[in-house]
Design a protein that fits this description.
The complex is a heterodimer.
Chain A lengths: L1 E4 L10 H13 L3 E4 L10 H5 L1 H17 L4 E3 L3 H16 L1 H11 L8 E3 L1 H9 L1 H6 L9 E4 L9 H4 L9 H8 L3 E2 L13 H4 L1 H17 L4 E4 L2 H9 L1 H8 L7 E3 H8 L17 H5 L1 H11 L2 H8 L7 H25 L1 H8 L3 H11 L3 H13 L1 H24 L1
Helix pairs in contact in A: 1-14, 3-4, 3-5, 4-5, 6-9, 11-13, 17-18, 18-19, 18-21, 19-20, 20-22, 21-22
Chain B lengths: L11 H14 L11 H5 L10 H9 L3 H6 L2 H4 L5 H5 L6 H14 L6 H17 L4 H11 L7 H9 L13 H14 L4
Helix pairs in contact in B: 1-7, 8-9, 8-11
Classes of the chains: A alpha/beta, B mainly alpha.
């Protein structure tokens, strides 16, 4: 498969790792990336703040070069480049007068026939999760990642069109396909502040802090991004943000392509992880130990589920996904017990008196609550039996106490 | 009496300006029913003098100059959250872009730092065809009189191979220069 490649200016500087790892990922997936010859800056975001015609013409020169070379799909890893290139294509397709005007400005044939895609659309939609899974030789088991989409990969919806604008899932699917866990978190499409960190640092730092702190609060041990400016803010400016907020954050940040390449067998150093500002190699090295720890802490029924599908080639991945889903259900059940013990007890024991005793037994007893929650998810019959046993035991104890 | 606001119908001049802004932004301010969803979700709303909803209200009331002078239009990060969530389909982000351009043309620049950043960015692209990140930061720092801003990041950037001593230049530099010239000349023609 051939794909035109628009690296963008940051690929030669601050986002050198993104370029390295995108190329490595493409090789791994047997995709022939062809860099657009003599490409120029897309003008983001200064051009569209200054002159609308210029904002359409700078990307258009690149699109015209792709057309000249017979390329119809362009991969633009940088989220801002992707936004500028793709919105120019769409605007020119919709408005013929604009297309003609741009043609005059760039002094080249420009038919607006190309489609520019982001890394997420490329991996999730064009390559597909199954193919990525098939290439994983070094699964990232033990990783707990917060997938950070930011703004321009999902907005505006008419441009991006392939993922949800409020709760996108494409990056989560990709990262899970690599064997990692992803956390559910509310800041995945919040803005990192973009260039405000440079022009208005007091505003930018707060936005960076909110994103990182929220990812940590959701239980993430690292962030994953698909945008060079998000990376710059979250990684390079993390130390400054720590200083300003007097709080140690220390959260490694990865490009999604770095993770794909590493899971496919590349070494972290080879795709540039050593160039990050927040040290990011040791977390990768700690993953096997973390995975072992997680496995040991997994509730027993989950292991049974894994054994139940030994023939499935994706058994491991499925099991870990199932484990995650199961744990979520169990957690929800525990919450239910804590919030409304009477109702939960009634679900297990019909007799009102005995149900009341059950509530008394399990309230404040985390172990018993967790055990019941787990059984209610995995085996309702056993849950009922365990609940009855708890009550019977408690009643016997009380009888003894009243006699003694 | 300077602080009083005259709520009489729009002057012809303001109406022409408002029409131009709406046309260029490709959206209509009259669709807005002031629900405030844009501002509730705005990630930089906390730092703005007028929230996005208020900026639209200013325009609805014909207070175009007030809107153009708002610091908000320079603080807006163009994240598009407002446009994505507006239940009336008002493209607020595009409106902010248009207001910035209009303010720039009229020399009403409430936040010089953002304008200087944009100028430095485009000057690099005009000369080399690509952005030269190191040069951009340096120019920005010098022009905003803060020469040591982010200086602690310079060496680490260099040691990581993320900064080059010289900008990358493309072969089609002349072509890009001409694009700038023609775009500037033709922008007014509608």
């Amino acid at each position: 498969m051939k794909l035109a490649y628009y690296p963008g200016c940051s690929s030669e500087g601050s986002a050198i790792e993104y370029d390295l790892s995108t190329k490595k990922t493409a090789r791994m997936l047997e995709i022939d990336l062809q860099e657009l010859e003599d490409w120029n800056c897309c003008g983001a975001t200064s051009a569209h703040n200054t002159n609308k015609l210029l904002a359409g013409s700078l990307p258009a020169r690149n699109l015209a070069i792709a057309e000249q070379n017979g390329m119809d799909t362009i991969l633009a890893p940088c989220a801002a480049c992707y936004n500028r290139l793709h919105s120019t294509e769409l605007a020119a397709r919709k408005d013929n007068a604009l297309r003609e005007k741009i043609q005059e400005v760039i002094d080249m044939d420009f038919k607006a026939l190309t489609t520019t895609i982001s890394v997420l659309e490329w991996l999730d939609n064009k390559v597909g999760i199954d193919k990525i899974k098939a290439k994983v030789s070094n699964p990232l088991k033990g990783m707990k990642a917060a997938c950070y989409y930011g703004c321009l990969l999902v907005r505006p919806a008419e441009h991006t069109g392939f993922d949800d604008t409020e709760d996108p899932q494409s990056m989560d699917r990709i990262v899970r396909a690599l064997g990692a866990q992803t956390v559910d978190w509310p800041y995945k499409v919040e803005c990192c502040g973009a260039a405000l960190a440079t022009s208005r640092p007091e505003i930018g730092a707060k936005m960076i802090y909110e994103v990182i702190a929220n990812a940590k609060a959701a239980g993430a041990e690292c962030l994953v991004t698909a945008c060079p400016l998000c990376m710059l803010n979250l990684d390079m400016r993390q130390a400054g943000t720590e200083k300003m907020f007097k709080e140690k954050l220390n959260l490694p940040v990865y490009y999604v392509t770095e993770l794909v390449a590493i899971a496919g067998g590349a070494s972290p150093a080879e795709v540039g992880v050593g160039k990050h500002f927040v040290e990011a190699i040791s977390y990768l090295q700690s993953l096997p130990a973390r995975a072992a720890e997680m496995e040991a802490a997994e509730p027993r029924p989950v292991k049974k589920a894994a054994k139940a599908e030994p023939d499935d080639s994706d058994g491991e991945a499925v099991a870990s996904e199932d484990a995650e889903a199961l744990q979520k259900k169990i957690d929800a059940m525990i919450k239910g017990f804590n919030k409304n013990p009477d109702k939960m007890a009634a679900r297990l024991i019909e007799d009102e008196e005995r149900a009341k005793v059950l509530v008394e037994v399990i309230s404040g007893d985390e172990k018993k609550t967790a055990r019941l929650a787990e059984l209610m998810v995995t085996d309702k019959e056993k849950a009922t039996k365990a609940a009855e046993a708890f009550v019977t035991g408690e009643l016997k104890k009380r009888e003894k106490e009243s006699k003694g | 009496m300077e602080s009083t606001i005259k709520l009489t119908p729009l002057t012809e001049h303001d109406q022409v300006l408002l029409d131009k802004i709406e046309k260029e932004a490709g959206t209509s301010i009259n669709l807005c029913y002031q629900c405030g969803k844009c501002s509730a979700g705005c990630p930089v709303g906390f730092a703005m003098d007028y929230t996005p909803r208020q900026v639209i209200r200013l325009l609805q009331l014909g207070l175009v100059n007030e809107a153009l002078s708002a610091e908000s239009i320079w603080i807006c990060a163009s994240c598009e959250t407002c446009s994505a969530r507006c239940p009336r389909g008002v493209d607020i982000a595009s409106l902010m872009d248009t207001l910035r351009r209009e303010a720039l043309d009229r020399g009403i620049i409430n936040d010089k730092k953002v304008a200087v950043f944009n100028q430095a960015f485009l000057a690099g692209v005009r000369n080399f065809g690509r952005t030269y990140e190191a040069g951009l930061l340096l120019t920005h720092n010098l022009k905003t009189m803060q020469p040591f801003k982010d200086a602690e990041l310079g060496l680490p950037m260099m040691s990581r191979g993320k900064v080059h001593l010289f900008p990358a230049k493309i072969k089609g530099r002349e072509q890009v220069k001409k694009i700038f010239e023609r775009a500037e000349k033709m922008r007014g023609e509608q």
